[in-house]
Amino acid sequence: MQHGYPRPQLQRADWTSLNGKWRFRFDDDASIASPSDIDDWPLEIEVPYPPESRASGLGDRGFHKVCWYQCDFEVKAAADRVILHFGAVDYAARVWINGHLAATHEGGHTPFWADITDMLREDGRQTVTVRAEDDPHDLAKPRGKQDWQLEPHSIWYPRTSGIWQTVWLERVGRSFIDKIRWTPRLEGFAIGLEARIGGVQHQDLSLELELKHGDRLLARDRYRVVDGEVDRYVVLSDPGIDDFRNELLWSPERPTLLDARLRLWLDGKIVDEVQSYTALRSANVLRDRFMLNGRPYVLRMVLDQGYWPDTLLASPSDEALRRDVELAKAMGFNGVRKHQKIEDPRYLYWADRLGLLVWEEMPSAYRFTRSAIKRTIREWSEAMDRDYSHPCIIVWVPFNESWGVPELPSVQAHRHAVEAMYHLTKTLDQTRAVIGNDGWESSATDIIGIHDYDSNLDHIRHRYGPEVEPEKLFDRRRPGGRILTLDGYPHQGQPIMLSEFGGISFQARAEEGVRKIWGYTAVEDAETFARLYEDLLNTIIDTPLFSGFCYTQFADTFQEANGLLYADRTPKIPLERIAAVTSRSRTYIPGGV
């Protein structure tokens, strides 16, 4: 299956995918130390699908602590450099090239790479070996919705071990563009560019930027590289009037991207060239409303687990990722909350290009230990670094429902962890809103997210209706039996969102391998399902207290039958009927949107 260019915001022409058939073996007692200890490879796997998935050719969902991969490829050493990339390996990886240790990495959702040039054989025939360690019982590592029991239970799903995103090679020059980072600044009609130059540093290196909107040239500038860096703001001509400004602004309704070409120059020659893109848009909070491009914007979102029946966390193909974005939009949603998953960059690419907002959420650990917090901080920082430049991302969510910090009301260290992650996230990105802990027990946060799966409309109106004052809501209401804000953190006027609700379970057909379905509210037929969805959405949309909502959920996920779509993305009711209520305008609300 084609998976598309793995790093869509820094693309080079010369790259090679290593996806396909690899040699494979399990190492349950972790007795193998290096590739030289392996005498045979009894299995074969299809990379990048995890061994637990059917698409891998194995479908083995047993407990395996360590697995090994190996494949042969051809590439000849030259004057330039050869870089080996891994999109994601769960959880800890060690990589050898021709028996030489090339890279180590810890973190199951973030990329890493190695310069393998000096390890290549002269005849061009190369071998890469990967050891992936992923203890299925370790609850102190970020694992998201991956179950620690043999059979998926409650709201947790089959595990994903080892390689689950694209493995690929690229050639770069001895000096090359290593990283780029885009920061839109709407108030100045400017685009910030941060570029880091890798490899050999020269005094005469310069970086050329060409920025276009379609065929229209917006900027062409050239900057001297100083200490391996370029940091500049490109100020665009501001049309001044909203109608003309809007042509350049990115939104779900008009996802305008600005194409960028960057060239690295040395001694009058181009030594590296990459394609990228960015966008002009702002995403922030003003008093009790979320703001997109300086205007109040109602978030109409759907919770998306990002799993597929045959491939688990891995995507079946690039087309499948695009189709998920298209389906969310076809159902009338303007955004998704990617739940407990750092999604494949190709999904974010299609969300950028097609116009879909994304909340990015850190996969949780389920024990509170020093190791768990350090692991979470490291991996979250890497995820933010990878995804910072995507215009579709509007909110960062470090914690969900107090998972990994279960004693927030009573243990100060748990509070400190949430507050530290909130402030770290705000430090690494000053341009987006941050929700410290979504669902309940809020402390440091820009948006207060509430999770409430009550399907009784009278209860919803009573809890959140126009007669309810926010201070009384936070003093008295305990959806799920949990306080909404911690002592010392009263509501300070932040936007309030119903960030999980619904969860209506309906299944008119049996799903392969699913013995028992699960949901918050069960219905027996499609018409009842449709009417309850419509009634819930109409009630929530017309509740002035909420600045947005996130319905649970996008698609059935294993035993959870509460999707608007079946697991294979077939709609349970017509998409047009879903969209009609999801996208409906609010009835008139005096003084607001």
Return the domain count: 3
Structural class: alpha/beta
How can the largest sheet be summarized? 8 strands, parallel
- Say what the CATH topology of the largest domain is: TIM Barrel
Q: CATH homologous superfamily of the largest domain, by name?
A: Glycosidases
Fraction of helical residues: 10-25%
> How far apart lie the N and C ends?
44 Å
How many whole angstroms does the radius of gyration measure?
Answer: 24 Å
Poorly predicted ranges (pLDDT <50, ≥5 residues)? none
CATH architecture of the largest domain: Alpha-Beta Barrel
How much of the polypeptide forms β-strand, as a percent range? 25-35%
Report on this model:
This protein is α/β, with parallel strands linked by helices. The chain folds into three domains: 156 residues, Galactose-binding domain-like (Jelly Rolls); 104 residues, Immunoglobulins (Immunoglobulin-like, Sandwich); 300 residues, TIM Barrel (Alpha-Beta Barrel). 17% of the residues lie in helices and 32% in strands. The strands form nine sheets. An eight-stranded parallel sheet has the order 28-26-25-24-23-34-31-30. Helix 3 links the parallel strand 24 and strand 25. The protein is globular, with a radius of gyration of 24 Å. The model has no long low-confidence stretch (mean pLDDT 93).
